[in-house]
Amino acid sequence: MKKLIKNTLLVVLLLAALGSCRKDPNPGGTAVQNLAGEWWVKIDNGADPTGDFGPNYYNFSTYNTAANTADSMWVDDDNNAKSFWDIKGKVTTNVPGRTFSGNNIANVDYASTFTITNGKVLPNAATAPGSHDKTDSIYFEIKFSDDPVPGTIHKVGGYKRTGFSQDDH
Description:
Layout lengths: L1 H18 L17 E7 L14 E7 L7 E5 L11 E7 L4 E8 L6 E15 L6 E11 L9 E7 L9
Antiparallel strand pairs: 1-2, 1-8, 2-3, 3-4, 4-5, 5-6, 6-7, 7-8
């Protein structure tokens, strides 16, 4: 009887051990993962014809929609108190071309619209200021319906957040 219990216990332990030896599942990515991320960006004031960016960095995010389709993504200032403008809206994307844009995008943060043109993400085209790691670069032009100077086009550019504190602002 002892031998039967011992053999049964051994079989159960063996099956448990074999069952735990499976690979972790690959969670995959999102449809817009090549455009998505947290970004540190600067914005120009729109009045400078040279297009020079201001001295301040702002946190900004791009991410997939709930539908997780390759044709759209959210652009979002993350309700950041230090944001350059309160914006959150869906833009049209071209994932293979790494571009995005949108006309008269409804602003979810407050009753207004904005237009983004010439949006692009360039892989490994930026160098983070603290770690000096290569990271993606982002650039787009944006026009706000409630800009104090109507029709002003602001240029926005920056780099993808690395996760290293020395690269955060």
